[in-house]
Amino acid sequence: MNQPNHVAEGASGEAALKMQVGPRFSADWKSKKHRERRLVSEFIGTAGLTFVLSCGAAVLSRYGGATLAPFEYAFILSAISALWLVAAVYFLGGISCHFNPAMTLAFTLRGDMGVPMACAYIVVQYVAAAAGSCLALFLVGMGGNLAATIPQEGMLWQAVVFEAILTFGMVLLVLSMANGPELTGPFIPLAVGAYVMAMGTMGGPFDGAAFNPARAFGPDFARNDFSTYWIYLLGALIGSVSAVIVARFLRGPAKAEESLAAMGTPLEH
């Protein structure tokens, strides 16, 4: 049974949700059943993202029928990833749909989830990203570098700043919109897809436009080339932390409902 609203007034994020939701909250993170469904959801969403991108790049390279300009290539891959994310957020949003270590970090810094569960999320996201790209490599080969994120020569630090900006926008968008009972409001998946499509098309020819360190990791793992991976990790870290600071300034501490959006809807006992 929910506690009265005044109980949670002095708390924010996860603490507020625990007081408001009551006994069902403990089942959310501490019950094996609830943890596993969250992690499986994260695996499906993240593996699907790298799979469709890596497959898309290889298929375009092998069967595209023409040499594509970098901007055309980026547009097609951005559309593929955007459509997958829209679909995945719709069907997995009530369970868990971060699909991005930068997003998980942001929710953790905001107080929506604890560090142990965040670490489990990030490990699963990385494993899933590697699995998705490796499956694509097995099925369709190495074509198109499996949609690897590769910066322009001599512009490594510019790429770090670029990734920080793209990650900042993505994280701020989700933190600003995820204030309902779950991350499946009617417009949130469309907003995420639109952002991915726009920024991926614009930034793809420059550095691959990952704004997701797991998305960058998957193809690098399948290709066994991590020479520039640090760019996408550092950029995502800077962008995510900056977005949390700005979101707190704009919206204040996370409310219980916003914390629930980060976690997904608890199952009944």
Overall mean confidence score, pLDDT:
84
Helicity, as a percent range: over 70%
How many strand elements?
0
Q: What Rg, in angstroms, do the CA atoms define?
A: 19 Å
Structural classification: mainly alpha
CATH class: Mainly Alpha
User: Which geometry do the CA atoms define?
Assistant: globular
Largest sheet: none
Give the end-to-end Cα distance, rounded to a whole number of Å: 12 Å
CATH superfamily: Glycerol uptake facilitator protein
**N-to-C SSE string, H for helix and E for strand:** HHHHHHHHHHH
The overall number of domains is: 1
CATH topology: Glycerol uptake facilitator protein
Tell me what portion of residues adopts beta-strand conformation. under 5%
Query: Can you tell me the residue ranges where pLDDT is under 50 for at least 5 consecutive residues?
Result: 1-8, 21-27, 180-184
- CATH hierarchy: architecture: Up-down Bundle
Total number of helical segments? 11
Membrane topology: Multi-pass membrane protein
InterPro entries: Aquaporin-like (IPR023271), Aquaporin_transptr (IPR034294), MIP (IPR000425), MIP_CS (IPR022357)
Organism: Fluviibacter phosphoraccumulans
Protein name: Aquaporin
